[in-house]
Give the backbone structure.
Amino acid sequence: MTEKKNLADGVVIEIEKAVVSYREDVALRGVSLSVSRGSFVGIVGPNGAGKTTLLTIVNGLGKIIQGRVEVLGHSLARGCPASLRARIGYVPQMQNIDPRMPVCAREVVMMGRYGHLGFFRRPSRDDWELVDALLEKVGLAHLARRPIGHLSGGEQQRVAIARALAQEPEILLLDEPTASLDRRVKEEILAQVSGFHKAGNHTTLMVTHEMDIAARLCDWLVLMKAGRILAQGKPEDVLQQEILKVLYENGDGQYYLPRQRRIANWI
Amino acid sequence: MHNAFLAGLLGGVACSLIGVLVVTMHISFIGVAISHAAFAGALLGTLLGFSPVAGASAFSLAAASIIGPVADRGEFNPDTPIGIIFSVMIGLAFLFMGLLPGPKTEALEILWGSILTVGENDLVLLGVVCALVVGAVTLFFKEIQAVIFQREVALAVGIPAHLVFYGMLFLTGLVITASLRSIGGILIFNLIVNPAAAAYQLTYSLKKMFALAGFFGVCSCWAGLGPLVPVQSPQRSNHCSGCRSGFRGMQHYFSEAESERVEV
């Protein structure tokens, strides 16, 4: 019953006291989060805070051992069925791709359609048109037939974003989409992500290390530390010296903390 | 001879298509692991008095079925369970060999194979498995392509990627089982890896890679049989006796090894 109610209220992701552990390491220690439709949520925090884990329990790639996760009105108690995963776009952290991988950029973007197509159905002309339009939008139309392993990191990342968008997702999960990219490419990709969010009607969750990016793009911030949510709210509400002090404190009483003026600039 | 060429065609296509899967997924050694499982199974079959082929089939299919789940449960790269299976199987094979009195010809035949003595039943089995592989690659092309690319991505876009991956491994086991009698457990590794590796060097299209690998696989089988054509019937018996003496030599070698071990 609550599932129906949630959808009616516009809540697309409801996480309650989720606990995730990789063998002896606990990655999430009772995280609760509610995300409403159409919002752009930024998940920030130091390394090892559980940001990626939080992202993966939404599409079922990560498994919770306690608590409750409900996505698009479906409880994930018994895993995330393939049909539901097809409605959630996922851009994982950048990975090394074998340079000889016998797949071209256009085919990788088409993979985003495979979940909707299901077994035994080939991509139609409409599917290919959608894929080509997306490649055009991310500025890679000229590299469509290039083997995926021959593209640069930034180009591979754009292909991954186009692939996730080819799913026509209701939720888009981005895991550090601009990590290890140069400033120009980073800005271009972020502008595209932001543009896609405004143009489409999906909910976006983005993990990032860069507070200024998160503050600029997102309308809701989740600050995570050591497997817990430290604070969440609108950027101007959570980006406070006292909260950031706790967020970046490393246990020895030392912390890296930007000046108040810089924080003010972010917002 | 006619049968041998047919076996070369069917085995060549099946093995090299499977080869594309294992080479692109970087699990080439699965061929060695599964054929040694087949060898251990054949020896156990001989030891317990049932058909070595049945033992070989059971062992190789079991090995192929557990590699995927062991990799996922243990959070291993599939390479590791392949190594585990290989070492367990070779250990079992030596144990069974030690326990088995008398000649082990039938079990050893599983390792060497004999394309010139292939019977109707073997051909039917090869034909069915070859059709299965070609059918699976055609029908599930897009799923296979996504799993080869990145299993995590395949899973995320809504493909039952684990199922597809396990299916691909099981198919590998099936092909090896069906080719044991004709191609043999040792040579099969060559036929799985080499045509696919050559195709891997020549194209960036997965479709073309399947086609090229199949072509190379059949060519290499037939090129091996070609020199035997001009001297067909007498050569056949010669070849067989050659094989037999080869087996005798091996038997001799193994019994020598055994007796040495006893002496120690």
